[in-house]
Write a structure and sequence with these properties.
The chain is mainly alpha-helical. It has one domain. The protein is about 70% helix and about 0% strand. It contains 12 helices and 2 strands. It has a two-stranded antiparallel ribbon.
């Protein structure tokens, strides 16, 4: 029986969900034995100090779930386009190195900022050039409120390069509260899953479906109070996954709408740093990223996460409206 694009996507979702849901509880004791626990910054919200030592690097399980789903369905449908998987794994590897330095080498800052940026830029340039020259993607993007794609020519490359670096870092910044990054990514992925149904290639719906399933399975163990954190291993992998979903569906511009929460988180850090430097040490927010500002304003962690999920859901609805 030949599977439709929708069916392959839903099966990918189910496989990834089951793998992550059932493997994560078995992964947590191993991380505890290795003493791979999260260090909590003392300058952060005091309520977070009790989370110190919570197992991290849970993003490995999310990637495992996506890989298993993608591998099984690639065999079934004869799809061998591993571009989205490679993007996820590359940024996941950068995050893994960062996490390993933090937890195994007991160096709380991980990779130096310039090292992380160099690795991200190398990946972003390779992705932008590949997408530009790939016949199935090319330099066209769908523009909001227009019933057609627009060819951006070679300007596509710098636009995509900036988008990749920005979104990977934005998702990484969003991962500061239990269930926040995984929940927001899940909701944003739904937009691209629907967008993938219009494409003939099954790999897109498989990948987007697997990301949804992986995030959903992980949320069971990452919601407040979290039994495990995804770490940079997960947040960077999901950042790469989000941006590559936008690239292969030609919906990069819509990522600014559907992923508005990611943009807000990153923008709050830019504003905070710029204001701090220009005013000689004054802060625009109580703390950045902005989810910590709301915590320090008296909101509970659960309330912040729930509101941010709702904001993301509204953003996705607006993106669908703009898509027409």
């Amino acid at each position: 029986m030949e599977l439709t694009v929708l069916q392959t996507g839903l099966i990918g979702l189910l496989i990834s969900f089951l793998v992550v849901y059932f493997v994560t509880p078995r992964f947590i004791p191993m991380l505890k034995r290795l003493k791979f626990g999260q260090a909590i910054r003392e300058e952060g919200p005091q309520s977070h100090l009790e989370k110190s030592g919570t197992p991290t690097m849970g993003g490995l399980v999310i990637q495992l779930g996506v890989l298993v789903a993608f591998a099984i369905l690639s065999v079934l449908v004869g799809n061998w386009d591993f571009f989205p998987i490679l993007v996820m794994l590359y940024f996941g590897a950068v995050g893994l190195i960062d996490d390993y330095i933090k937890v195994a080498k007991k160096h709380n800052l991980g990779l130096r900022a310039w090292q992380k940026m160099v690795l991200q830029c190398i990946g972003a340039l390779a992705i932008a050039l590949y997408a530009y020259y790939a016949p199935a993607i090319g330099s066209e993007m769908v523009v909001p409120l227009m019933d057609q794609t627009v060819d951006f020519g070679f300007w596509y490359v710098p636009f995509t390069f900036i988008a990749v670096v920005s979104i990977v870092n934005a998702v990484n910044l969003t991962d500061g509260l239990d269930g926040l990054a995984s929940g927001v990514t899940l909701i944003v992925a739904i937009f691209f899953f629907v967008g993938s149904l219009a494409l003939p290639q099954a790999n897109t719906s498989i990948f987007t479906g697997a990301i949804i399933g992986g995030c959903l399975g992980f949320l069971r163990h990452n919601s407040n109070p979290a039994d495990i954190f995804m770490g940079d291993t997960g947040s960077m992998a999901l950042g790469g996954a989000v941006v590559v979903m936008a690239i292969i569906t030609q919906l990069q511009i819509f990522l600014l709408i559907a992923g508005a929460l990611f943009v807000l988180e990153a923008l709050s850090v830019v504003i905070q740093v710029s204001y701090f430097k220009s005013t000689g040490g004054k802060r625009f927010f109580k703390m950045a990223p902005i989810h910590h500002h709301f915590e320090l304003s008296g909101w509970s962690e659960t309330r912040v996460v729930t509101v941010f999920w709702v904001v993301t859901a509204i953003s996705v609805v607006i993106a669908f409206i703009c898509l027409g």
